[in-house]
Amino acid sequence: MEITNAERARVLVHALPYIKIYNGKIVVIKYGGNAMIDEKLKNSVMKDIVLLSLIGVKVVLVHGGGPEITEVLTKLGKKTEFVDGLRVTDSETAEVVQMVLAGKVNKSLVNLIGVKGGKAIGLSGLDAKIIEAEIKDERLGYVGKITKVNAKPILDLLEKGYIPVISTVACDEKGNVYNVNADTAAAKIAGELGAESLISMTDISGILKDKNDPSTLISKIKVSDAPALVENGIIAGGMIPKTECCVNAVKWGVKRVFIIDGRIPHSIIMEMLTDEGIGTMFEE
Q1: What is the pLDDT of residues 150-200, one digit of tens each?
Q2: Contacts of 183 (CB under 8 A, 6+ apart)
Q3: For 92-125, how does the pLDDT look when each residue is reduced to its tens digit (9 = 90+)?
Q4: How far is it, in rounded angstroms, from Cα 105 to Cα 63?
Q5: pTM exceeds 0.90 for this model
Q6: Domains, in order of start, for the chain
Q7: Tens of pLDDT, residues 2-34
Q8: Whose C-alpha in 41, 100, 189, 276 is 20 to 30 A from the C-alpha of 147?
Q9: Considering the chain, what is the average pLDDT of its residues?
Q10: Residue 1 in this model has a pLDDT that exceeds 60
Q11: What is the 3-state secondary structure (H, E, C) of the chain?
């Protein structure tokens, strides 16, 4: 669909107040789900990130890569087991997680941002001990509970105009490598950075009053109201831990926290730079 120059100008004028809000501010984007697998969506996300960077937003991209890890483990003949939605990670699986997340996935995203005209540098939680962790649950093996985030290397890169792309692999004082939940890592990093916003990309529209009806989207949720929504079953299943991460991020000082539908092209721009937005925002 072709748009006229007048329509283009109108879009830019409407975006201007939001550009002012976010200019020079840090925005952490948690990237995962279908938007990470579908090539068209992946291109759309990287374009959004580069655009935000070019208009003066300090973007930090935090990513997981569960499907890619499972694919490699399957090729190696290793079965994947989950407990409470978390991957059981023995020492061999931890090596695969490090290889896939810090290597293949991370560098492919850095490369794609470069192709789109951005400047990105890939990091993992192991670099300068950005993410330190300890064993979360003995049943899960090397699945990490974050104990500390070192924000300085991230801030240094932002200061130099780079987009840090961070894979959620963590370490401890003994050199053990941990698989860390990407939602938790993004929330912790956003809090440590004092980010203006945290945007969590998911495979649903946001928090719905009726999970089968997208028109029942709840556009704003106060942190104090979240427990009641869980108790009433409106927030259920896999959305409970995501909601906990969003609530914690607000408590840790992030001003705006969003859950958005990563299956929609340019959903980040629609949420950040338009009046309507498309997801659910958590606020104090």
Answers
A1: 999 999 999 999 999 999 999 999 999 999 999 999 999 999 999 999 999
A2: 30, 200, 241, 242, 245
A3: 999 999 999 999 999 999 999 999 999 999 999 9
A4: 9
A5: yes
A6: 21-200+265-273 (3.40.1160.10)
A7: 668 887 788 788 888 888 989 999 999 999 877
A8: 100
A9: 91
A10: no
A11: CCCCHHHHHHHHHHHHHHHHHHCCCEEEEEECCHHHHCHHHHHHHHHHHHHHHHCCCEEEEEECCHHHHHHHHHHCCCCCCEECCEECECHHHHHHHHHHHHHHHHHHHHHHHHHCCCCEEEEECCHHHCEEEEECCHHHECEEEEEEECCHHHHHHHHCCCEEEEECEEECCCCCEEECCHHHHHHHHHHHHCCCEEEEEECCCCCECCCCCHHHECCEEEHHHHHHHHHCCCCCCCHHHHHHHHHHHHHCCCCEEEEEECCCCCHHHHHHCCCCCCCEEEEC
